Amino acid sequence: MFRFARPCLLAALVSLAPLASGAGPAAPPLTPAERGAIIDALRANCDPSSGEAIKFADSGLLEAVSEAAEAELAQRVRPSDVDRAWAYDPPRHDIAAELAAAREAGRLGAWLKSLSPSDPRYRALIAARCRYQAMAWSGGWRPLPAGLRLSLGEQRPDVKLLRQRLAAEGYLPRQATASVTFDESVQRALRSFQQRHGLAANGLVDRKTLAALNVSAEARLQQIEVNLERWRWLARPLPANRAEVDVAAAQMTLYRDGVPALTMRAIVGDPRHHTPLFTAPRLQAVVFNPPWNVPDSIARAEILPKAAKNPGYLARENMTFVDGRLQQRPGPKNALGQLKIDFPSPFGVYLHDTPAKSLFGRAVRALSHGCMRLEKPRELAAALLANQGWTAERIDAAIAQGATQRVELKGAPPLFVIYTTAEADASGAVTFRPDPYGWDDRLRAALAPSLASDIRVRAATANGDVEPGQFGP
């Protein structure tokens, strides 16, 4: 339950000074059971106040839990107010009223437990937040020298620095940090680091690897924080049967009974044409051999200029005008491939096949104009249509006919389009991904301009090292 920077408020809490209350009668004193429930909830979510919470006056403890509830229930920002492409709409809550009602009903503990998303991935990321919070508060790790390049077999003092850096996040044991030799154990640890940071696992300290190694613990903690916030925007609980597209991971997963049943690579919008974040209530239809109605913006900016320079271009690409709009007919060159999956969306995007299969082999797959291309579209169609008597063979036959055919889906799952740049597994290992759209920074700025100093303020103020307000308002 991370609470963003309010330095003067935090100093008041730690020093046990009572907080000013708003208009209205004072809240009744907390019972020992209520105090215990609040402190347990703060600790379970690694709230930065939890270390001092036991010392708080009632007013301070109620303020701490109110702020924590505001965060967990996604009340700090409205996603679409920050970016129109973030089309989530978390339910609105009156925190003060809900807290008062929970106390009056004698169910404060149950209310506190209901605040956070229950998805295991959220809980795993909370545990990771606790670890990285401790790292950041203890000073994190030293950056490696600029321009450093290391590989297997080298013996240099800089190897000791690399060992210490890898040990800081648990990629090497602490007792293995004294040697100056880049041996196979260091190479294995480095490859593991690279795999969890979206890098080529070559076991070398190259330019991109050095840049990832030199991202600070505080920055990684902030990356975890914004991913926790995006989790809070989603439905609670997530439906056991659903389709998910993770834009940052460029991956699509179909869930059955809460378990991944089909996973595939995806191609998503490029840095200029973002794939939006939204929820579709259900996947609507599978369209075999779809025509592509070219968006006017793409036609004007890309296709028509090519056609003007290259006579016969439209014919070669199987394009024509239909009712005044450019359309690409079904066929092997069609940009949508041989099938697409429709769903209701305000953005005019969909899931579809592609003739450019080789692009799925790329590590970076932010390449489209916003739609989501699928590595295994036929397998997804088969999974969605299985309860309607469709087999893989029947799907192949429908495609082979060449005619456009739309099949409405019955009992189809909803679609969630998400954006995950930090995730943790059950073992506690964290994967950090690049942020292709810069949305982590955008969300961090929306949540609190002073987040960058928040960690230092909390640690230093709690330790009595600074005066309130030293780091700014």
Short précis:
The chain has 473 residues and is α+β, with helices and mostly antiparallel strands. It has helices at 7-14, 32-44, 58-72, 79-82, 95-104, 108-114, 120-137, 157-168, 184-195, 207-213, 217-232, 296-309, 313-316, 377-385, 392-401, 439-447, 451-462, and strands spanning 242-246, 251-256, 259-269, 278-280, 285-288, 292-293, 319-322, 325-328, 339-342, 351-352, 366-368, 372-374, 405-408, 415-418, 422-424, 430-432.
Summarize the structure in words:
- The chain is α+β, with helices and mostly antiparallel strands and 473 residues long.
- It has 17 helices and 16 strands.
- Strands 1, 2, 3, 4, 5, 9, 10, 11, 12, 13 and 14 form an eleven-stranded mixed β-sheet that branches. The protein has a three-stranded antiparallel β-sheet with strand order 6-8-7. The protein has a two-stranded antiparallel sheet with strand order 15-16.
- Helix 2 (32-44) crosses helix 3 (58-72).
- Mean pLDDT is 90; it is low at 1-23 and 450-473.
Low-confidence stretches: 1-23, 450-473
SS element count, helices: 17
SS class: alpha+beta
Principal-axes geometry comes out as globular
Mean pLDDT: 90
Which percent band covers the strand fraction? 5-15%
The end-to-end distance, rounded to whole angstroms, is: 21 Å
CA-atom Rg in angstroms? 26 Å
Number of β-strand runs: 16
Percentage of residues in helical conformation:
25-40%
Q: Main beta sheet: strand number and arrangement?
A: 11 strands, mixed
